[in-house]
Structure of Protein MIX23:
Amino acid sequence: MAAPSGGVNCEEFAEFQLMAAHASRDRVIKNCIAQTSAVVKNLREEREKNLDDLTLLKQLRKEQTKLKWMQSELNVEEVVNDRSWKVFNERCRIHFKPPKNE
């Protein structure tokens, strides 16, 4: 991908595409983590009431695994975000300096 020819293109890309995409993915992943955490909490409470229910234990383990995957996805997203900003800065540093809030 070649650097855009003018400052406006880099600025628009940074503000409207890169920042918005990262914020959107971050928000969605955190929402999924919150929902799954609530499910895990409820299952733990049910499990404490009924220690003999193996189906409940299996479901709890499944949800805990899902939660760990989502948390690891958030870490992956942070790496992707850092790398995309690095590439953006390498390609567009002549044309535009993004704000420091990324």
Q: What stands out?
A: The radius of gyration is 21 Å. Residues 66-93 form one domain. The mean pLDDT is 84.
